[in-house]
Specification:
single chain, alpha+beta, three-stranded antiparallel sheet, two-stranded parallel sheet
Length: 141
């Protein structure tokens, strides 16, 4: 994500890309890593392991939305009931295998809030999470 720190390549990009770079630069960031020895971007700190209660407190104290990147980290947040909304960009590309976008071990009902289809075939889906209405437990294994 260090690419967003540099303005050189952004001059020819659309306004939305430049705006995202500014938002990303200004945001406080937490990187969960057991191997990184230091940070290489501004407003960034390293945490060695995901602590659900710490994230819950951060979420409650924050005056703005929090964002999670990465399937493994997001799976932990889903498992601990920390996710209020889920945004997926479905791209028309087959890469075979890989990590699932959503965790396999969590049962969670989603409510579609928004969707868009872009000219390049990408589909944007935004869902709210809600408690399961059936008898299924929230964290089914």
């Amino acid at each position: 994500m260090r690419v967003w720190e540099n303005d050189d390549w952004l001059t020819t990009e659309p306004a939305v890309v430049r705006e995202y770079a500014e938002i990303w630069r200004d945001a406080a960031k937490v990187v969960y890593s057991s191997t990184l020895e230091g940070v290489s971007t501004a407003h960034t700190r390293i945490e060695r392991q995901f602590e659900p209660e710490t994230v819950r407190q951060l979420k409650e104290a924050s005056g703005s939305d929090l964002s999670i990147g990465g399937a493994a980290l997001a799976a932990q947040a889903f498992q601990h009931g920390l996710v209020d909304e889920c945004v997926l960009l479905v791209c028309p590309v087959l890469v075979g295998g890989g990590k699932p976008a959503l965790p396999r071990s969590v049962r969670l009902d989603l409510e579609l809030l928004d969707h868009r289809r872009f000219g390049n075939g990408v589909v944007y889906l935004r869902h709210a999470t809600r408690r399961a209405t059936s008898g299924a437990p929230r964290n089914a294994t």
